[in-house]
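Second opinion, please. Pick holes in both lines of this record:
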Amino acid sequence: MALAGLRGDAEIRWPPSPWNDLLIWWNAQSEALIEHIAADDPERTCTTLPGAPQTVGFWQRRIAHETAMHHFDAVVAAHRVIDGLWDAEFAEDGIDEMLTVLVTSLRPPEQRTPVLLAVRDTMIRWSGDDIELETRSDQQPDATLDGSADAIYRALWGRPSDAVWTGDTNLFTQITVGPVSGAALPAR
């Protein structure tokens, strides 16, 4: 879908079914996507997900986080656990993408509940459509997700994490579980 959107294709080119042909097709598609992503202008308009920014930059960001999560899956499948896999800046961008892009573009407005989350020293005010980051205030959060940016990033994406959720666990479900990340609740 990303490559079709970047190319401006009218239709998505679906993979062949024989296994050997599929591997050849997949490698060619991956190489083409990498070439497009690396060389394209992030501000150029292209087709993306409904409700998401319609720019190449959306795909550059989306592919970076999708690849990061699948890399993590491969690490876990190899029975290796790596704490602090991503630096704080990348993890914070992944948190932002989950809350401001994916949840808002994939969940209808009636399935979005405004929430005030406390994440370490930052308050995240998510209205269901937009996100605001602010330093902690005296206002009581609806829920708290505590951990490093890396741990919270993994928790929101439904990956093993030592982030701890306290407060109304239904809010976590409403934000991430299902078509967005497939996340399960982190430990309480």
Remarks:
- Residues 184-188 have pLDDT under 50 and may be disordered.
- The longest strand covers residues 115-119.
- Strands lie at 115-119, 122-126, 131-135, 143-146, 164-167.
- The chain has six helices and five strands.
